[in-house]
Automatic annotation (TrEMBL):
The gene is gucD. Belongs to the aldehyde dehydrogenase family. Pfam families: Aldedh. The active site is at E255. InterPro entries: Ald_DH/histidinol_DH, Ald_DH_C, Ald_DH_CS_CYS, Ald_DH_CS_GLU, Ald_DH_N, Aldehyde_DH_dom, AlphKGSA_gudD. Keywords: Oxidoreductase. It comes from Thalassorhabdus alkalitolerans. Residues 18-481 form the Aldehyde dehydrogenase domain. One of its GO terms (molecular function) is 2,5-dioxovalerate dehydrogenase (NADP+) activity. This is Alpha-ketoglutaric semialdehyde dehydrogenase GucD. Gene3D superfamilies: Aldehyde Dehydrogenase, Chain A, domain 1 (3.40.605.10), Aldehyde Dehydrogenase, Chain A, domain 2 (3.40.309.10). The lineage of its organism: Bacteria, Bacillati, Bacillota, Bacilli, Bacillales. Its EC number is 1.2.1.26.
């Protein structure tokens, strides 16, 4: 594997050109596996740079909207082809920059390619309906219009897939974009932008600008020429963005945290449930909005499940995501490591029992922590209520499936939930009663296939959906046309 990105400086992409920030300042993005390594430098942009990017997107929007949708789709096919030739390189950068293992990073990058192709095809699908009029001489139909300029604000944990699942539908439905990635994954995002730039989209259609959330992110939210904001990230930031966008009448879409349960019923295939709990909870070091964090188990099989789970968790190899034998990489940053460690302390203080893990890996320089398993966790504890965003599983014992669903619902988030059961009545109750946007039966908590809607209930989401056909609802408005 190469170290080609090391210390290279990446620029903003504004109005079809790579540009340094007017601040003349850049910042290094750190490798969490080896904090002495700078993966690359990104621009610390200013409001002035942001205004330029927004003006460029605004200027480009009419011509882009008027381009035939299949032609817009063709640009996405082109970007997909370019990205596909760089999958290994971009995945390697992702592993260096935010720590997820190389196979996971590669899977995510390939998903980015598939999302681009899916939305490229959307350029050839219908976007309106003919509605019967009571007037026999009239034609009544709906037509979709783009919002205009869309601000895309993304987190560090899926630095390829999330920006693409926002930008691809934004573009194909005729919007122009200003993209602000998370600083902690800015180099990976810059490489996605390179693929877009190479596809030669018209000037100003996609603009890329790095810098802090408080300056660039907030600036996008507040700018009168930004017609829509699509955000994925933490709940605190999301709420603030929602309020800002609402105050000036911009459309917004928020995908935020999760506190996802898995229910293991007495009749479950226990080996399947154990493997899925581990994979759903600990892959990507638990840094997924859909990660399993609460494991709610029926008492009659609790001990057997716990023993099987612990046996496998103890075998997990934590290490550099670029090494083939590593199953789990580091926390993505020092602050993430500190947050996870403080939740582990809090869990112990609140009376939960730490059965295994939660320790820094002493032999490693980076922000590595062993996967933690708690038991005797009750609903009022912080580790049962708050999103930890780390490799921590909280075991909770219940008697019945009704109680399990009640406990599963006893949080303010509602993103993803799974049940393991072979009883049809159990899973029908679960599908009906579970307050979550993604409910899964005998399958680990995870995202969904890209052609299906993705999003949460309760505090997890602003209730619009991403991915699949559902994305059109956010990225367009309906025009109702009556022709006499
Ligand atoms: P955040 O800290 O919320 O950051 C997300 C993005 O918002 C970053 O680009 C950040 O910029 C920017 N930002 C920060 N302050 C802002 C402000 N005042 N105005 C506008 N933008 C601002 O989240 P994160 O730590 O990157 O990601 C982890 C969180 O994302 C978790 O809570 C996780 O659950 C959530 N997440 C949710 C989903 C879905 S689909 N529900 C998927 C993945 C992740 P900088 O950080 O660069 O300053």
């Amino acid at each position: 594997m190469s170290t080609a990105t090391q210390n290279q400086t990446y620029l903003n992409f504004i109005n079809g050109e790579w540009q340094a920030s007017s601040s003349e300042k850049s910042q290094g993005s750190i490798n969490p596996t080896n904090p002495d390594e700078v993966v690359g430098n990104y621009q610390l942009s200013t409001k002035e740079d942001l205004n330029q990017a927004i003006e460029a997107a605004d200027h480009a929007k009419t011509a882009w909207r008027k381009l035939a949708a299949p032609e817009r789709g063709n640009y996405l096919f082109k970007i997909a082809d370019i990205l596909e030739t760089r999958v290994d390189e971009i995945a390697e950068t992702m592993t260096r920059e935010m720590g997820k293992t190389f196979p996971e990073a590669k899977g995510e990058t390939m998903r980015g390619v598939a999302i681009l192709r899916y939305y490229a095809g959307e350029g050839m699908r219908k976007t309106g309906d003919v509605i019967p009029s009571t007037d026999k001489d009239a034609l009544m139909f709906t037509k979709r219009s783009p919002l205009g300029v869309v601000g895309v604000i993304t987190p560090w944990n899926f630095p390829v897939a999330i920006p693409i699942w926002k930008m691809a539908p934004a573009l194909v439905y005729g919007n122009t974009v200003v993209f602000k990635p998370a600083q902690e994954a800015a180099i990976t995002a810059a490489k996605v932008m390179e693929c877009m730039a190479e596809a030669n989209l018209p000037q100003g259609v996609v603009n890329f600008i790095t810098g802090s959330g408080s300056t660039i992110g907030q600036g996008l939210v507040d700018h009168p020429k930004v017609d829509g904001i699509t955000f994925t990230g933490s709940e605190n930031v999301g709420r603030r963005i929602g309020q800002g966008a609402l105050a000036r009448g911009a459309k917004y879409q928020l995908e935020m945290g999760g506190k996802n349960p898995v229910i293991v019923a007495a009749d479950a295939d226990l080996d399947l449930a154990v493997d899925a709990t581990i994979s759903g909870g600990l892959k990507s070091t638990g840094q997924k909005c859909t990660a399993t964090s609460r494991v709610i188990v029926q008492s009659s099989i609790y001990d057997e499940f716990k023993e099987k789970l612990l046996e496998k968790v103890k075998q997990i190899k934590v290490g550099d995501g670029l090494k083939e034998d590593s199953w789990m990489g580091p926390c993505a940053s020092e602050s993430q490591f500190n947050t996870v460690s403080s939740y582990i302390d809090k869990g112990k203080e609140e009376g939960a029992v730490l059965l295994y893990g939660g320790e820094p890996v002493k032999e490693e320089k980076g922000y590595f922590i062993t996967p933690a398993v708690f038991e005797n966790v009750t609903s009022e504890m912080a580790i049962a209520q708050e999103e930890i965003f780390g490799p921590v599983l909280a075991l909770m014992k219940v008697e019945t499936i009704e109680e399990a669903i009640e406990v599963a619902n006893d949080v303010e988030f509602g993103l993803s939930a799974s049940i393991f059961t072979t009883n049809i009545q159990n899973f029908l109750s679960f599908i009906d009663d579970m307050e979550a946007g993604l409910v899964r039966v005998n399958a680990e908590s995870a995202g969904v296939e890209l052609q299906a809607p993705f999003g949460g209930m309760k505090r997890s989401s602003s209730h619009s959906r991403e991915q699949g056909e559902a994305a059109i609802e956010f990225f367009t408005s309906i025009k109702t046309v009556f022709v006499k």
